[in-house]
Automatic annotation (TrEMBL):
<dbReference type="InterPro" id="IPR015897">
    <property type="entry name" value="CHK_kinase-like"/>
</dbReference>
<dbReference type="InterPro" id="IPR011009">
    <property type="entry name" value="Kinase-like_dom_sf"/>
</dbReference>
<dbReference type="InterPro" id="IPR004119">
    <property type="entry name" value="EcKL"/>
</dbReference>
<protein>
    <recommendedName>
        <fullName>CHK kinase-like domain-containing protein</fullName>
    </recommendedName>
</protein>
<feature type="domain" description="CHK kinase-like">
    <location>
        <begin position="136"/>
        <end position="319"/>
    </location>
</feature>
<dbReference type="Pfam" id="PF02958">
    <property type="entry name" value="EcKL"/>
</dbReference>
Length: 402
């Protein structure tokens, strides 16, 4: 099955009355009458975890609209009890995401448009609710020509586009804070104790160590990994996440290629990127998002990507009229180096997701998250091993174990 099993059918409460309310509250029509709707999964297997997402095409009539058709993306919690529902109840991600879409991203968009950066930043939010159930409804970016990235990793040109988009988001939030906004202090995933205790997170460093021990010539690095317990590594990550940074921004918090949608220009080249899934934003060093995205990149791309990011970041700040002292690239380099433990943790956990061969996935994500033997087998993936052979030794050279 190439989709998540719990996205095959919409929850029972998604009916004509609910969709009528969404269309009316979004301003798409008055006195709406829904005639029909059809639902399909909005994402592919392995694209995301926990929340469930549907693409719903609605046919309707309304005042002045005889043959209305609208495509909606609905994001909600699963009704069935289990790890997904428990996770979402404990991390309160829907509150954060609703706040981002309704209070933060629109202001970021306004700042960027004034600076000449007019590409879509994120999809328009049409409806939100926390009670009686957690729901977000978005415009369907697919209807605007956007698509999911068609390959596992971006090339150099696409990498520049991705890091340019991140720089725009970061610079806009930096300016908001500089102008006195005091509502951006989101804590991120390392400050959510429940998330840190997920079995997937606990076993990641151990399984990475076991893989390193099988690689000829990597014995010294395997020995060093053996000294790094998950308790020590997580403690270091929490300390790094919460320590004052040289300069801080509002990080996306889950910044990887499946949380973006892309659009081509008239020459059939990817030219625009819209960001999605703002469930775990984090106020802190920009190194957090930079290293998260770097999980999918060849190591040789890092310097190019980080420098391009910084150049766009400064360009946006200058164009906003920011009058304070500008951050320096040396400060950013220091932040990246200081985040080596977080980078290593990402490599042992989220990095596995990003280097899985999804064409060979014959299991649901619930099984992946709960079945240690299944998850351990995925660490033997060719692409993942090739990546860690290149990256992990460089990180271990930067890390001092007390």
């Amino acid at each position: 099955m190439s989709v998540n099993a719990d996205e095959l059918e919409v929850p029972q409460w998604v009916d004509s009355d609910f969709l009528r309310m969404v269309i009316e509250e979004s301003g798409k029509g008055k006195n709406v009458e829904v005639h029909d709707f059809k639902s399909t999964p909005a994402t592919a297997l392995g694209d995301h975890y926990a929340s469930i997402m549907f693409r719903i095409k609605v046919t309707f009539t309304a005042d002045g609209i005889k043959n209305g058709v609208i495509s909606l993306i609905l994001k909600t919690c699963p009704d069935a009890d289990g790890l997904k529902k428990e996770l979402l109840n404990n991390i309160d991600s829907f509150s954060s995401e609703i706040y981002m879409y309704t209070k933060v991203l629109n202001d970021c968009r306004d700042i960027l448009e004034k600076c000449g950066y007019r590409d879509l930043l994120a999809p328009r939010i049409l409806y939100t609710s926390l009670e009686p159930r957690k729901v977000l409804v978005f415009e369907d970016l697919k209807e605007l020509g956007y698509f999911m990235f068609p390959r596992d990793a971006p090339d150099e040109y696409e990498t520049r586009l991705i890091f340019s988009k991140l720089a725009q988001l970061h610079a806009a939030t930096f300016k908001l804070k500089a102008d006195g906004r005091n509502d951006l202090n989101f804590k991120g995933s390392f400050n959510i104790s429940y998330a840190r205790k997920l079995d997937f997170c606990i076993t990641g460093p151990q399984f990475l160590t076991e893989v390193m021990e099988t690689l000829p010539g990597f014995e010294p690095y395997a020995q060093k990994m053996r000294k790094i317990t998950v308790e020590w590594l997580v403690k270091k990550c929490i300390e790094i996440t919460n320590q004052p940074a040289s300069f801080s921004v509002l990080n996306h918090g889950d910044f990887h290629i499946r949380n973006m949608m892309f659009k081509r220009n008239e020459f059939d080249a990817i030219s625009e990127i819209a960001l999605v899934d703002f469930q775990v934003p984090h106020w802190g060093s920009p190194a957090y998002d930079l290293l998260y995205m770097a999980l999918i990149l060849p190591y040789r791309f890092r310097e190019m990507a980080f420098r391009h990011y910084f150049n766009i970041f400064i360009d946006v700040l200058v164009k906003t009229g920011y009058e304070g002292e500008l951050p320096t690239y040396e400060q950013l380099q220091q932040e990246i180096k200081a985040h080596s433990c977080i980078d290593l943790y990402f490599q042992s956990t989220m990095g596995l997701f990003l280097h899985m061969d999804r064409s060979k996935m014959d299991f649901q994500m619930d099984a992946f998250m709960t079945d240690r033997a299944l998850r351990r087998s995925v660490y033997n993936g060719e692409a993942y091993i090739a990546h860690i052979k290149e990256v992990v030794p460089k990180l271990l050279d930067e890390i001092t174990i007390e």
